[in-house]
Amino acid sequence: MANDPLTQLRLQLQQLEQEVLQHDRLLSATACRLIQDSERFNNELFVQHGAALAPCIQQIRTAIEQLDKQLKMKLSAQLIALSCQRIQDKFVAVKKALTSTKINLKAAQQTQRTRKTLWAKRQQNQHQQTGFEWIASSIMQNSHQLYQELNKHLNWAEKFTQKIAELDMRLANCHSNDKIKLQNEILSMHKRLGKCRQAITYIEDRIQALERPNFRNR
Predict the structure, then answer these.
(1) What are phi and psi of 17, to 5 degrees?
(2) SS3 label, residue 76
(3) If we measure between CA atoms, which residue out of 157, 158, 12 comes closest to residue 4?
(4) CA–CA separation, 142 vs 210, rounded Å?
(5) Best label site of 16, 63, 110, 174, fewest CB within 10 Å?
(6) Residue 18: pLDDT above 70?
(7) Cβ neighbours of residue 17 under 8 Å, at least 6 residues apart?
C-alpha cells in the first residue's frame, strides 16, 4: 500500500466501478435469469447472487469507510493490515467475476439443456406408458401440433357419437337375426369413443402442461 491507503483504495474502487457498470450494462435479460440464483462469491467476501456485480461495489465502499474509521481510532497496525487485506481480497474476487460471467453463463445454459433433455425423456417415457404411444411423441412437445391433434380427436368423437346414434336407431327397428351383429357394432363403437375421449383428456392435459408459465424455464 502507498502512504495514503484510503486514497489508493478509493481510486482502485473508482476504476473497478466503471468496469462493473459496463459489465452489468451488457448483461442480457436471459443471462440475468439463468444465473440469478448462482452464488459467485465466498459468503465471507460478499452477500450477492446472480449476474450483476454492482452490489459488490457498495459493499467494498462500505469496507473502505470502516477502514477509515479504524484509522481514525488508531487501532493496531495488525488489525489495519487485516482490513486492508480483506478489501484487496474483495477487489480480486470481483476482478475474477468480471471474467468468469461467460463461463458461469455457459455452465448454466448446459445445466438448463440437460434438465430439458431429462424432462423430455421423462415425458416420453410417461407418454409411452399411458397407452397413447400411437400419438407421435414429437407432437407431445409442440402445443400447436397438439391443438391440431385435439381437433382431430374431437371430430372423431363426434363421428363416433353420431354413428352410435344411427346404430341405436337401426337396432330398435331391426330384425331379431340382426340384433347381435348390431349390438356388437355398437359395443365396438363405444369402445372406440371411450378411447378417443381418453385421448382428448390426455392431449388437453399435455397442452396445459406445455403452456404453463414455468414450462419454458425448466
Answers:
(1) -60, -40
(2) coil
(3) 12
(4) 8
(5) 110
(6) yes
(7) 57
Residue 155's pLDDT band, with cuts at 50, 70 and 90, is: very high
Could you tell me if 111 and 171 are in contact, meaning their C-beta atoms sit under 8 angstroms apart?
no
| Cell reading at 35 | 444465473
pLDDT surpasses 70 at 24: yes
The cell for 95 is 476482478
Cβ–Cβ under 8 Å, residues 184 and 170: no
E strand or H helix that includes residue 153: helix 143-173
The amino acid occupying position 48 is: Q
Per DSSP, the residues of 25-64 read HT--HHHHHHTTT---S-TTT----SS--HHHHHHHHHHH
Dist CA 79 CA 85 (whole Å) = 10
d(C-alpha 150, C-alpha 55), whole Å: 50
Please, are residues 40 and 97 in contact by the beta-carbon 8 Å criterion? yes
Q: For 94-142, what is each residue's pLDDT tens digit?
A: 998 888 887 777 776 777 777 766 666 665 665 555 566 656 555 566 6
Contact 71, 38 (CB under 8 A): no
Which residues, 6 or more positions from 154, have their beta carbon under 8 angstroms from its beta carbon? 200
